[in-house]
Amino acid sequence: MALSNSGFVKITSPHTHGGNTTSRIMLLVILATVPGIIALTYFFGWGTLINIVLASFTALACEALILKIRKRPISFFLKDNSALLTAVLLGIALPPLAPWWVTVVAVSFAMIFAKHLYGGLGNNPFNPAMVGYALVLISFPVQMTTNWTVPYFMSGAETIPFTNSLSVIFSGTAGLSDAFTGATPLDTYKHLAKNETAVEILQNPLFSSDVAGAASGGSASNWFAGGWEFVNIAFLLGGLALLALRIFTWHIPLSLLAALGTCSVIFGWDADLYVPWSLHIFTGATMLGAFFIATDPVTASTTPLGKIIYGAGIGILIFVIRTWGAYPDAVAFAVLLMNFAAPLIDTYTQPRTYGHEKAKRGMPAKLDTSTTDSTSKEG
Amino acid sequence: MANKSLQEISLDGLWKNNPALVQLLGLCPLLAVTGTVVNAIGLGLATILVLVGSNIAVSLIRNHVADAVRLPAFVMIIASFVTVTELVMQALTYELYQILGIFIPLIVTNCAILGRADAFACKNGVIPSAVDGLTMGLGFTVVLILLGVIREVIGQGTLFTNMDLIFGEMAVNWKIVIFEDYPDFLFAILPPGAFVAMGLIIAVKNLVDTHLEEKAAANKAAVEVGSKRARVTGKIS
Fold this sequence. Notes:
By secondary structure, chain A is mostly helical. Chain A contains 20 helices and two strands. Chain A has two domains: 161 residues, no CATH class; 121 residues, no CATH class.
């Protein structure tokens, strides 16, 4: 729009514009998270929705404030929905009953430090949402790991009404019994696997009182857990929709899931000792990470081969950190570590330009002098 | 360099060429032990002591040590002063000595000290060197304390905890609890928080410098207008 006003419309070839603007892409990604948000709200209560609303207001306020300080057009950048997307992803990632200040700290750090101190949208080397998440995860480990609500169908658990969720988020968990909150299935399995066999672990209500488990007669052979499989499937559907709309390509999600699956099948073959592959793929933030976080066009690798390496790297790191690390989930750390590597991967995976030799060690190859001898007169 | 007045030397150490904010030297202890104000003051005092001592000693021997072996000689001198400081701290503030731990012996490797020895003390007389050591150390300490304040308030919600480790009995009640029931903000207590706080302090310093420069430029421009007119009228003579 700004271009056409300044007289840059004199284009001869019949170019068409795909109609993709930043704000449209961001909006589509936000819409694609809706199935996942619905699933999260269904299984874990109102907390996620409250988090998302709180995060959105904080993000817009921070964005407006910092744009004002940087003397940039405020409404132009607020309308591109990127701040909103960061807020929505953080709201989803944070535990549903995380205290309000955890959300505010995470979002403001993401917007101010991870995004705008690096130069704003398009210049940030690290995914802002994951920087904010990692910050609060290492800063407030207690609030971040124990405030996951227990899925509604578990024995002894009750759904928390909307007003109760509000009071828990804004005034603390005092008076809330353990029946409402707990660790995630990944964490639970990892800790139980130290002493128990797979069959014993699956007796844990988190695994055995599953919806799917109930359908199959509550048998202990159920490898999924605690509503998480439906959350992940919902995010998978949203991600596939984005793929169909060509918002991103298949490279990163596929290589990420393939690498994570392969690692967990090879190393996690013994379910008595390691978390089985089904839990790796269908619990935690795997699908959210694969389709919505790793595919961030700013911080991910951009070449086709590079995207595959980048996705596979995240998948391997997720498995390594989940299996041998101290934190319950690993998507944030894995994505941030590969964000570091993305520029290097891009340098070494530049595709061959038509009519040129393949790039060597990241440097573009020189023109083939034997064929272009007559035209090139470079000294 | 040799003709600098003591005032200029002091201004350099405290502001214009501050070892922590401008030269970015000695970052390892700076980032590692500024979790609380008391740690910051402790390390700052130790650094001042070593810096003044080594600067004076280096300045005294500057004409008697061959150029080729000057660095080993400097390191020997610095190491001696660090050992002295370490023993003094062990005697006077044993608990603080235990808290700071490895970072006291590591003052030897603080490049701010070797940097001052090589860049200033070995080219200047005893008194300028002592002033340089003192002001550089003070500049470093001020930044340490500033970082300590920021990190202690954000990290633990308190200020001046355990000040009695340095100031004795009278400082037992100096602790100020700023936020009651504060959940520890681990990021600020860990070194990454120090990096971020440090970056913000440097940003503020640059902001002040830019502001001062603009002000100076504005003043200068005003003077130039006058001087042009003076030159015009000057033709009369």
